Write a sequence for this structure.
């Protein structure tokens, strides 16, 4: 594997080299598994013992690293961010267009850039638009009039329903369904009457969606996922939801219909949100929280129903003391009864 100089990696990571800037490394690895010619990283001084024992030939360290280190280093403000950038650099591979596999089924009127990779068993409906350097893995089904932007990658067995729009540099992992019907019914005298779901889903640029997630098409209009948002596995997003740019949604989150989520929002695992509420920009929602009302911008909430995080912490701490409090109350009650009976 060709090596890269620390100078190159430091420029990528926004850091400074201590030692020989022309020293080359061929890969990146964890401290306890790094080998000669590899670079590793430590997030803080608590990893000093692992750093000392590591077989890495070079290190990414916090700029305020307090210990002497003889190996060449890249000193950075944020080692974890530097690791992400450098690891991505090493993991990146040039795109090789393999064309359209002979077993793929392509509908009439499609516009497909010649520099694509469309694998075995892919089905693409009529009038789809597939951009340059798109990779579509085996078993993917793409409906009619779907558009997929440049350098996007669709992993095996993804289904994208008709009319949906996928931006550039989007990654959709295996088993995910984009654009299935939203869950909408009216109550009639003879049972449930389905409300037609005639809208679409639009995924903006630089979004990543984990495996086995579902994003429903809008009843009318658009269900939208904003630019740069990252969605974990097993997430359910209902019809007409709007998620702003650069948000993070962790596994098993469920967002009900017509909810508006702002920019830079973070949702922990298993969060549930009712429909028709607004989650403000940069809000934080703790894991397993049940959100029953709108959350102001910048607020951090936890619990079910979700309340401001600090208040929730006080409630949890009080709950831990509840058995002792119940015992004390019982003892006080017994003493009071004895006093009233003249036995005290």
């Amino acid at each position: 594997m060709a090596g890269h100089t620390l100078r190159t990696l430091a420029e990528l990571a926004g850091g400074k080299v201590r030692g020989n800037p022309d020293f080359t490394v061929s890969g990146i690895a964890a401290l306890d598994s790094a080998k000669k010619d590899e670079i590793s990283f430590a997030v803080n001084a608590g990893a000093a013992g692992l750093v000392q024992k590591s077989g890495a030939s070079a290190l990414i360290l916090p700029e305020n690293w307090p210990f002497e280190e003889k190996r060449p280093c890249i000193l950075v403000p944020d080692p974890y961010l530097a690791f992400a950038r450098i690891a991505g650099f090493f993991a990146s591979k040039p795109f090789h267009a393999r064309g359209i596999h002979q077993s793929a089924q392509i509908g009439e009127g499609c516009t497909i850039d010649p520099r694509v990779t469309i694998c075995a068993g892919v089905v693409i409906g009529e009038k789809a638009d597939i951009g340059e350097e798109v990779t579509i893995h085996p078993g993917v089904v793409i409906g009619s009039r779907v558009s997929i932007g440049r350098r996007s990658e669709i992993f095996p067995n993804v289904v994208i329903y008709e009319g949906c729009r996928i931006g550039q540099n989007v990654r959709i992992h295996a088993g995910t369904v984009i654009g299935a019907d939203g869950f909408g019914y009216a109550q009639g005298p003879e049972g449930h009457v389905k409300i037609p779901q005639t809208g679409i889903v639009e995924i903006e640029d630089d979004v990543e969606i984990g495996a086995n997630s579902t994003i429903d098409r809008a009843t009318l209009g658009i269900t939208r996922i904003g630019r740069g948002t990252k969605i974990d596995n097993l997430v359910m997003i209902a019809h007409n939801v709007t998620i702003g740019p650069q948000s993070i949604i962790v596994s098993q989150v469920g967002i009900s219909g017509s909810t508006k989520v702002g920019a830079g929002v973070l949702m922990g695992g298993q969060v549930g949100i009712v429909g028709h509420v607004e989650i403000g920009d940069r809000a934080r929602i703790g894991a397993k929280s049940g959100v029953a009302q709108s959350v102001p911008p910048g607020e951090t909430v936890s619990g079910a129903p979700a309340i401001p995080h600090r208040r929730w912490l006080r409630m949890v701490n009080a709950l831990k003391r509840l058995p002792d409090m119940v015992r004390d109350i019982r003892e006080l009650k017994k003493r009071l009864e004895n006093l009233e009976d003249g036995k005290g």
Notes: The chain has a mean pLDDT of 95. DSSP finds five helices and 40 strands in the chain.
